[in-house]
Amino acid sequence: MSTTTVLERNHVTVMGEGAQTLVFAHGFGCDQQMWRFVAPDLARDHRVVLFDYVGCGRSDASAWNPQRYASLNGYAQDLIDVCDALGLQQVVFVGHSVSSMIGALAAIARPELFAHLVMVGPSARYINDPPHYHGGFEAADIEGLLGMMESNMIGWANYLAPVVMQNTDRQELSQELANSFCAGDPAIGQRFARLVFFGDNRADLPHVPVPVLVMQCSDDAIAPESVGHYVHQHLPRSTLVQLQATGHCPHMSHPQETIEVLRHYLQTDSR
User: Fold this and answer.
1) What residues have CB less than 8 Å from 256, skipping those under 6 apart?
2) CA 225, 212, 118: angle at the middle one, nearest 5?
3) Which one of 23, 133, 248, 258 has the fewest beta carbons within 10 angstroms of its own beta carbon?
4) Where in the sequence numbering do the catalytic residues fall?
5) How far lies 102's CA from each of 97, 208, 242, in Å?
6) Could you confirm whether the keyword Manganese appears in this record (predicted)?
7) How many domains in the chain?
């Protein structure tokens, strides 16, 4: 696939200049616009790359096919394709939510592309697996959520967005997230949702070949603290930072803290 085709397919945006390249990847139901409170600050002294996974945001949805995107590896290939199209190596990858695991899969497949991973609100498994793993949800809860998504997309989005975002004093953020959930092709969104919420990437964590910063939010209903600690403990080389930020989207609700933690890591641990 040509460079131009990849950059158009994934609606790639490049900004800033610097010796280090940061690649930002959005979470489920979102797009690169969700990084708008964080990316411009980092672009002051870094090269910043943003993109949309196929089927999300302003990507070319016609490039989506059920075979490639039957697993998270297809989305990891999107990330790899973007890095190859831009000739990138040794990037710092910043992935929110499911993109944390997508980044892990990409780094396992092509370790030369990545210097570090930053996982914002990661979860390797959303469903509880007692007695040793608490992911935050029972399988029946997930089935109920996805059933609601398939029968009443708007109602599902308006219910889930405030749970994800928290920060009830910032209703506009919850509304933006709900709108984003409903913006894409519902059939693609439903398949992606099943991949995300029924996925299990616990076995992949020990194989991640690069250092990782785990950014764990407070009062996160989607990825509770036990999950962040599990991810941290099972990565070969990781740093865990407990954020003051509440909810699951600190880059939107608490961008300044997100920027400060990222900059501290880039200036110290990532060297």
Assistant:
1) none
2) 75
3) 133
4) 97, 220, 248
5) 9, 11, 22
6) no
7) 1
Torsion sign across C-alpha atoms 196, 161, 43, 4: positive
CA proximity to 53, closest of 2, 105, 9, 119: 9
Domain of residue 143 covers: 3-267
Q: Which amino acid is at 61?
A: A
Task: Give me the amino acid identity at 270.
Answer: S
Q: Which amino acid is at 152?
A: N
Q: DSSP letter at 68? A: G
Q: Which pairing describes strands 238-246 and 91-96: parallel, antiparallel, or unpaired? A: unpaired
How far is it, in rounded angstroms, from Cα 8 to Cα 25? Answer: 16
Cα–Cα distance, 190 to 28 (Å, whole number) = 10
Q: Provide the residue-wise pLDDT of the chain in tens; the chain has 271 residues.
A: 667 699 999 999 999 999 999 999 999 999 999 999 999 999 999 999 999 999 999 999 999 999 999 999 999 999 999 999 999 999 999 999 999 999 999 999 999 999 999 999 999 999 999 999 999 999 999 999 999 999 999 999 999 999 999 988 889 999 999 999 999 899 999 999 999 999 999 999 999 999 999 999 999 999 999 999 999 999 999 999 999 999 999 999 999 999 999 999 999 865 5
Residue in the structure block whose two tokens are 């131009």 = 4
Using CA atoms in the order 236, 226, 99, 169, what is the torsion angle rounded to 10 degrees?
A: -140
Helix (H, G, I), strand (E, B) or coil at 100: helix
Pairing label, strands 13-15, 47-50: antiparallel
Strands 13-15 and 238-246: unpaired
**CATH number of the CATH domain containing 65:** 3.40.50.1820
The phi, psi pair for 238, rounded to 5°, reads -145, 155
Q: Both tokens of residue 263?
A: 């900059």
